[in-house]
Amino acid sequence: MSAARLRLTPAIFFGRAALAVYLLIMLLWLTFPVVLVLLASFQGTLEVSFPAPVSFDAYKTIPPSYWEAFWFTIRAALLATGIALLVAIPAAWAMVRGKLAGRRIMSNLVLIPDVVPQLILGIALLTVFIPLRLSNSFAGVMLALVALSLSTGLRFTEALLEGLPDEYEQAAQSLGANKFTTFRLVVLPLIAPGVAIAALFIFMQNLITFELLFFISGPSATPIAIRLFSDIIDRGIVPYAVAMAGILVYVAIAFYTLVAVSLGPKYMAGSVMSRKG
Amino acid sequence: MTDITNTPSSGLSAPDAQDQGRHVSRRRLRREKTFYRLLTLPALTIVGLVAIVPLLLLFVGSLRDQRSGLFTLDNYVNTLGNGFFMRTLATTIAMAGGVTAISILMALPLAYLLARRTLLRNIVMPIITVPRMLPFVVIGYAMILLLAPMTGVANKVLMGLGILQQPAFILFDWPGQAIAFAYNGIVVATAVLTGVLMSVDTQLEDAAVSMGASKPRAFFAVTVPLATPGIIAASALIFTSVVTAYAIPVMLNGRVPYMVSLLISANLLTLQQQNLAYAQAIIVSVLALGVTTIGQVVLSRYGQRGGDK
Amino acid sequence: MNMSNNAAQPVHIDRVRKTFGEFVAVRELSLDIEAGEFVTFLGPSGCGKSTTLKMLSGLLPQDSGEIRFGNKRIDMLPANKRNIGLVFQNYALFPHMSVAENIAFGLRMRGWSRADKDKRVEQLLQLVRLEGLGNRKPEQLSGGQQQRVAVARALAFNPDLVLLDEPLSNLDAKLREQVRLDLRDIQRRANQTTIFVTHDQVEALVMSDRIVLMNKGGVEQVGTPYELYATPATEFGARFVGANNLIAGTLDKSSGAIQARIGPETVQPVSTHSNNVEKDGMDIWYCVRPEHVAMRPQSSAGHFGGRVMDKIYQGTTVLIDLDVKGLGTVRAERPALEVGDLGVGTDVGVHIERSHAVARLG
Ligand SMILES: Nc1ncnc2c1ncn2[C@@H]1O[C@H](COP(=O)(O)OP(=O)(O)OP(=O)(O)O)[C@@H](O)[C@H]1O
Ligand SMILES: [Mg+2]
To answer: What is the mean pLDDT of each run of 10 residues along chain C (362 residues)?
Structure first.
């Protein structure tokens, strides 16, 4: 079979060449946003030229309001991830192990924030947040993110627990551990690595959530994605905004590295990330 | 020699003791269920308050007349009878459909290569994963840097090479949006399809080749059908994300084409026609959820081969 | 150091029953187990062995019936209050804990002091011959070693009863033979009341004080390994335990003695298990173990005429398929030395050394 493949007929040659061109175009296409944003952020201009002097001016001129928005987002994302997992893990355990009636319905209910388009959930939240004075507030943004994270968190932890043979829990119980102790000493340590990965993804998802938060954010509660967005509407593209976009690229790369290192190189055959757009 | 007896043992197992024992264990089981129910309570409460109740209120609002507060179907009737809304919806669907088709077609060969070549996959996976960890706005910035009429890289390169005589003004027109959506679509499709194709057994294809099929023929005859559920799932994902996208239409919008999310937000924020906007939001969600559901049904009908493993 | 379980108590299982919807997984099971006894539940896959163990351990509530340790009723207690040690088929050792931590888990749940725990863990490591491996993680042990850790963990807290659910099925054949003797030895030294589950009849015969033979959720027979082998109570028992020739016949008590009538002219004396084979003329299976089929020179008297149809050499013994006049096809198993070069087609005399009858239904 391989002997036949080695003969290089013109048809095979052109096939190979076409494949190589296709691959090159796809790689250029996939990398261009990251490359362009980083190049522009180091040139301090809005025009990417090559070659060009490297300058950090754009980074230095990032205004405090951007940093505020950045840290606002980090805080909200972090808190939402924590709360969501704190709530999702016991819920997932109860749903997977509790043999509760209506289990499917319950877990589908929790998945609603993930299934309904974010834009629509955002509008729905706006209608209740305004009378509650939660729109344009940290608490409002955080709550919206908690709902979203809860869905993702439940899906992750349900999968983790379904993958955990229940013999471990049965063994612990037979050795004298009650439900709570079993959870603390056996279940939690065994799913902890998976939960850590889930936390990273949920945090990252919270960081980049846009449509859900667009309507409920405001001047005193602005996530960084929305800050960047409204500036482009008001002012057009500006160098320091590109620099901030560059910083978000670094964050993404850092996260990717963290996950890749902790999961090993074989991971991400699409499984974890492919679930969401 | 046999210990099997059908006579009750003495003393303790009198009928009432039996009943009492059953009573005790039933109470214990009930307590256990209650314990588990309590554990699900916080999650259900949060989702109830932060998603289900708001969505229900949105739905109720869509059924009310804005001024009188009376229940009516007017918002829906007016929306569906409104030529502008329907045209906008049609444009949106056409955009979403086109983007979906292009994304899948462009991504499928790449995904196939990634699924079969470990080295290539290890190189390319970060390249398609990092963009998915960026806010869509950042992709929008990159689009502007690439396509802007005077300063954009694409125009400069093409004019420098003499291919274009004057800059192409595609950024704030439908091609600009389509390109931005397609970028995201291709990234998503590549990730999903790589996962699906990796779970398709390579031996099936080898078997087809051994029976005399050419490699491409084997790919289309064996692998693509097996990957179809994954293709459908990815399509649903891309389609709904385009239909309900907001950032890109606003950032890259020059009024043409007018996407349905812009119409809804205009009704909501600037035109102060909230209840109408609610009805439109419901219509769009039904469309999006419908497409997702069809994807799910197809996925479950045609087996679990795809998906993640 | 005294390893034995001084407080050992008898276990009483009284009409325990379990259904899954319509399906009866365990039908009214009753059994009394003496303190320190090793009882095996033997039966084919799906007959309800694991379900029974789960009810005993409290992981599955029974529909009715009760379970007692001595005089203490335990079936209303949750699994963690029953004081029963469990060994799983895949061991279920906690992968995030060391061997010592695994063994100490039950002690930790019972609030033992640090020093007591350490001492007890040492004792058990010694008992299962894993001294010095306390700091390893389970994944760093071989299958046989993991199995012994699982046993040590289940014994550590002096349980009233230890349940083992096919604990040897993940070991390769060679190791399995070794480990079943080890296990038996550990159980004896600890004087630990034990229920062992297997679908391997050899395992059951080798290890048990008594065997509970199960089929389709019910008990077919309870007895010592010898009783099960020599005097099966039912057709199922006759077929499931050991090899057996089953030949259709009827019971003949006309002469006072218990005999089997096969075909028009053959009448042979048989043993029976109990009073369920008693009615004159009832349908029975005439059961002959292959090793009780002896071959004689054709000339001698008091035997059936037979012909060697096939011969399978197995090392120490040879399986011989015989066509026996009046009985049909009968398989014999004889020492290889005795058989010599007996050829296929040879006519021989066949003598049935022992036979047994079980009721034939349908
Ligand atoms: N949760 C359940 N729901 C419905 N049926 C069940 C359940 N658990 C067990 N069964 C059924 O009960 C019967 C007995 O199961 P059990 O696990 O006790 O068999 P077993 O004797 O241990 O078999 P094996 O040797 O294969 O382990 C089986 O037919 C099984 O299908
Ligand atoms: Mg079993």
So the answer is: 60 92 92 94 93 92 89 88 91 94 94 94 90 92 91 92 89 83 87 92 92 93 93 91 90 83 81 75 90 82 84 90 89 88 87 88 76
User: C161 and C12 in contact (C-beta within 8 Å)?
Assistant: no
DSSP string, C231-295: S-SSHHHHHHSS--EEEEEEEE-TTSS-EEEETTTEEEE-EESSTTS-STT-EEEEEE-GGGEEE
Measured CA to CA, the distance from residue C305 to residue C322 in angstroms comes to 10
**Ligand 1 atom nearest C51 alpha carbon:** 18
Q: How far is the CA of C25 from the centre of ligand 1 (A)?
A: 7
Question: What is the distance in A from the centroid of ligand 1 to the CA of B62?
Answer: 52
Local confidence band at A114 (pLDDT 50, 70, 90 cut-offs) = confident
Using 50, 70 and 90 to split pLDDT, how confident is the model at B91?
A: confident
| pLDDT band with cut points at 50, 70 and 90 for residue B143 | confident
Q: Where are the domains of chain C?
A: 11-230, 235-359
Radius of gyration from C-alpha coordinates of chain B: 29
Sheet strand arrangement including C317-324: C293-296, C347-352, C304-313, C317-324, C328-335
Angstrom distance (rounded) from CA C289 to CA A32: 80
Nearest neighbour of B21 by CB, restricted to C12, C66, C227: C66
The closest CB to that of C73, out of B3, B8, B12, belongs to: B12
**B221 falls in which pLDDT band (50, 70, 90)?**
confident
Respond yes or no on whether ipTM tops 0.90: no
Bridge partners (DSSP) of residue C271 are: C356
Instruction: Output the pLDDT for position A268.
Output: 44
B43 to chain A, any CB pair closer than 8 A? The answer is yes
From the list C14, C61, C223, which residue is nearest B1 (CB)? C223
Domain range C11-230, CATH class: alpha beta
* The predicted structure's pLDDT at residue A177: 93
Query: Would you identify the CATH topology of the domain A63-268?
Result: MetI-like fold (1.10.3720)
Per DSSP, the residues of chain A read -HHHHHS--HHHHHHHHHHHHHHHHHHHHHHHHHHHHHHHHHHTSSS--SS-----HHHHT--HHHHHHHHHHHHHHHHHHHHHHHHHHHHHHHHHHS--TTHHHHHHHHHHHHHS-HHHHHHHHHHHHTTTT-TTSHHHHHHHHHHHHHHHHHHHHHHHHHTS-THHHHHHHHTT--HHHHIIIIIHHHHHHHHHHHHHHHHHHHHH--HHHHTT-BTTB--HHHHHHHHHHHH---HHHHHHHHHHHHHHHHHHHHHHHHH-TT--SSTTGGG--
Q: Which residues of B touch C9 (CB under 8 A)?
A: none
Flag the least confident range among B49-58, B195-204, C41-50: B195-204
**Which fold is adopted by the domain C235-359?**
OB fold (Dihydrolipoamide Acetyltransferase, E2P) (2.40.50)
Task: Give the pLDDT confidence score for residue B13 in this predicted structure.
Answer: 46
pLDDT of A1: 44
Using a CB–CB cutoff of 8 Å, tell me whether A172 touches chain C.
yes
Q: In sequence order, what are the beta bridge partners of C212?
A: C41, C222
B39 touches chain A (CB under 8 A): yes
Q: Is A134 on the interface with B (CB under 8 A)?
A: no
Q: Which chains touch B (3 or more CB pairs under 8 A)?
A: A, C
